[in-house]
Write a structure and sequence with these properties.
Strand content: 15-25%
Number of strands: 21
CATH architecture of the largest domain: 3-Layer(aba) Sandwich
Keywords: Oxidoreductase
Largest sheet: 7 strands, mixed
CATH topology of the largest domain: Aldehyde Dehydrogenase, Chain A, domain 1
Structural class: alpha/beta
Radius of gyration: 24 Å
CATH class of the largest domain: Alpha Beta
Protein name: Malonic semialdehyde oxidative decarboxylase
Number of domains: 2
GO molecular function, one term: methylmalonate-semialdehyde dehydrogenase (acylating, NAD) activity
InterPro entries: Ald_DH/histidinol_DH, Ald_DH_C, Ald_DH_N, Aldehyde_DH_dom, MeMal-semiAld_DH
Shape: globular
Bound molecules: nicotinamide-adenine-dinucleotide
Number of helices: 15
Strand order of the largest sheet: 15-16-17-14-13-18-19
Mean pLDDT: 96
Organism: Halobacteriovorax marinus (strain ATCC BAA-682 / DSM 15412 / SJ) (Bacteriovorax marinus)
Helix content: 25-40%
């Protein structure tokens, strides 16, 4: 079993203010590795005073950064890409250490971040602006301008990828960027800050502030922060969205999910077995795109057998990582017991899976069959490798259940029928739909974003729909005295 190497020394995650690494001046926060349950790092809360000083530096830096031509801003991002590729092993190791993912998943997250970065690099070609002579001598044009200082608050489950959804686009558009990483996984931020500095990003354009709710509130409330991007649970997304918009700021807050997969009897057993098992076990189910409820329509036992077999082979520490905290592990175990006490049959119990040695937080893939429609296991975002199967007699019943769930991040269907797939694509209540794909994350330049309780605010977090969120579009109309003939040529 290949576990990651755990360093002996404690890694510090300081703040990054005006291009310098400065320890947060508030209480200390320990970082535990889910791999062994031990403290591997430390960060600190940031006081209101320190946050204020940091934002003042970010504001100063932004003025010059915005005046730097887009082509030159893009060059920094191009260098950043090369450094990330060079250092991918080192960064992936830290992501795994603090988050508990397996190394290949950490690398995949960084590669997805690089895809967003490549999109940002192409902005100079994609978004060159437009100008038109609307009547003789009168010209209208669009000019994209930065907002100023913008902020981003990120969750624990993708310490590199989620920040990389917004860092390249918001910064390339000329903003300076305040990043508040999850207090559970702040170590990766240090590597990203160093990589951007080496890439040539001027001091102050990226600021990293560590802390918890108070730190977030101070950032949102600061008069010089123009926009707030947030990714995390729906409960906090709603709080952050309300707070920012009450102050007249733009906010885009992505929340939690409860993603449904509809399995139809004509689905290919091997394809659906792999696709569905990998969807609920990938990143130990700790991703907002994970399958969580399987709506099994009609006679699909062959396919379910194939899912169980694939999930059984997903060994802990090797093919699947750990759960973020002991509390979350206990919560998942309680949720499994609760579902069983309500009549669900446990087809696969991850608590019995072989665990790596030590005190890490491990739970193997768990499949619950015959889950009741209105139970906790079918409605609450569990955020672990637990899939609930609800048996349905037809597609309409499956769609009714999918539509009734309050979230709306992703939904998928596994079928060989194009017509049935189209019915699901048209009627699923989700921002992202997969057809024979368990994790339907759109690739750049297609935007990422859900609906309903999975997203508060307008627009999407990546791709073309994110550009208007991180910038103003100024409309300039110009009039020149123009001659109507060609005398000017003589
Ligand atoms: P979380 O909501 O607990 O924390 C997210 C961020 O909010 C952290 O930086 C945290 O410090 C901050 N925060 C926590 N409490 C706060 C408060 N009271 N006020 C202000 N800020 C506060 O989420 P998490 O546990 O880190 O991440 C898991 C959640 O994120 C899941 O629900 C998952 O579905 C969701 N998620 C969603 C997406 C998406 O694209 N929709 C992507 C990744 C994760």
């Amino acid at each position: 079993m290949s576990l990651i190497e755990i360093p002996n020394e404690i890694i510090e995650a300081p703040n990054f203010i005006g291009g310098e690494w400065i320890k947060g001046d508030g209480e200390s926060i320990d970082i535990y590795s889910p791999y062994n349950g031990k403290v591997v790092g430390r960060t600190n809360e940031s006081s209101s005073k320190q946050i204020d000083q940091a934002i003042a530096k970010a504001k100063d830096a932004q003025v010059l950064w915005e005046k730097t031509p887009l082509k030159d801003r893009t060059k920094v991002m191009f260098n950043f890409r090369e450094i990330l590729l060079r250092d991918i092993e080192k960064i992936a190791h830290i992501v795994s250490l603090e988050n508990g993912k397996i190394i290949s998943e950490s690398k995949a997250g960084i590669m997805k971040g690089i895809e967003v970065l490549e999109y940002a690099i192409s902005l100079q070609n994609l978004d060159a602006g437009s100008k038109m002579e609307v009547s003789r001598g009168v010209f209208c044009e669009y000019r994209r301008e930065a907002l100023g200082v913008v902020a981003s608050i990120t969750p624990f489950n993708f310490p590199a990828m989620v920040p990389m959804w917004t860092i390249p686009i918001a910064i390339t558009l000329g903003n300076s960027y305040i990043w508040k990483p999850s207090e559970k996984t702040p170590l990766t931020a240090t590597l990203i800050g160093n990589a951007l500095t080496e890439a040539g990003l001027p001091a102050g354009v990226l600021t990293i502030l560590n802390g918890t709710a108070n730190c977030v509130n101070d950032i949102i409330d600061h008069k010089d922060v123009a926009a707030v991007g947030f990714v995390g649970s729906s409960k906090i997304a709603k709080i952050v969205y309300s707070r920012a918009t009450a102050l007249g700021k733009r906010a885009l807050c992505l929340g939690g999910a409860k993603n449904h997969i509809i399995l139809l009897p004509d689905a290919d057993p091997e394809m659906s077995g792999i696709g569905i098992a990998d969807s609920f076990t990938g990143c130990a189910g700790q991703r907002c795109m994970a399958a969580s409820v399987l709506l099994a329509v009609g006679e699909v036992d062959k396919q379910i057998e194939s899912i169980v077999e694939r999930a059984k082979s997903t060994s802990l520490g090797d093919k699947m990582g750990a759960i973020i905290t002991k509390e979350q592990l206990d919560f998942l175990s309680g949720a499994i017991d609760k579902a069983a006490s309500e009549g669900a049959k446990i087809l696969l119990d991850g608590r019995e899976a072989k665990k790596p040695e030590g005190d890490g937080y491990w739970l193997g893939p768990t499949i619950l069959d015959g889950v009741k429609e209105n139970s906790e296991a079918s409605k609450v975002e569990l955020f672990g490798p637990v899939m609930s199967i609800i048996r349905c007699s037809n597609l309409s019943e499956a769609l009714r259940i999918e539509n009734a769930n309050e979230y709306g991040n992703a939904a998928s269907v596994f079928t060989n029928s194009g017509a049935m797939a189209e019915v699901v694509a048209q009627n699923a209540s989700a921002g992202m739909v997969g057809i024979n794909i368990g994790v339907p994350v759109p690739r750049e330049p297609f935007s990422f974003g859900g609906i309903n309780e999975s997203k508060f605010g307008y627009g999407d977090i990546t791709g073309e729909n994110s550009l208007n969120f991180w910038s103003h579009v100024k409309k300039v109309t110009t009039k020149w005295q123009m001659q109507n003939d060609h005398n000017w040529m003589s």
